[in-house]
Amino acid sequence: MLFPLANDFYGGYQQKRLLASYHNPIKEKENIQKQFLDLDQIFFNYSQENVSFVINENVIKNATALGVLKIPAIDATLPIVEGADEASLEFAAGHIPGTAMPGNIGNAAIAAHRSFKYGKLFNRLNEMAKGNEIIIETTHQSFIYKVKNSFLVLPEDVHVLAPSEDTSILTLITCHPMKNPTHRLIVQAELVNP
Question: For position 92, which CATH number holds?
Fold first, then answer.
C-alpha cells in the first residue's frame, strides 16, 4: 500500500537532486542515431505497466543536470541530463548526445518519458500548441523557444534530428500513445531570444 507514496517521494527527491546539480559538466557525446533508435525499446519497456526496471543506483547518484526545462503551458519543470538511456530518463529529460546544445545553432534534441512517472515528465506534451513557450535555463543563460509544430513519426524516422544550419531548433521527443507506443510525438520549437 505504501509503494506508490514511497515511489513518488523517491522520484521527487531524485528530481530535486538533479535540479540542484545542473551546473556540473556534461558527459562525452555518443552517436545520435543510436541514441534515438534506442529510445524505441526504452519507451516500449516503460509503457508496460508490469515491467519493473532495474536501475543502477550508482548511475542515478552520479548523474548531474546540465539545465532545467520549463514548459509553462503544461506546468512542467524538469532537470535535463546528458544521455537518453533508461537511467537518464528515469527522473529527468535527456539531451541526446551529438545533437546541438540548447541555445546553439543546430537542432537540440531532448527526450523524456510520458506516463506512469512522478513529476509528469512529458505526460502532457500532446497539449502543446503553436506559439507556446519552452524555456531552458543553464548556469550561463536562459533560452526561450516558441513552438512551431508538433507531429507524429515512426520510431525509425530520424529526420527530426536533422541539423539546422542557421537557426537554433529544439526538438522534444516522447512516446505515443502512452501505452504500447508505436510512434514518437515530436514538438519542435525555434529560439526567439538569440
Answer: 2.40.260.10
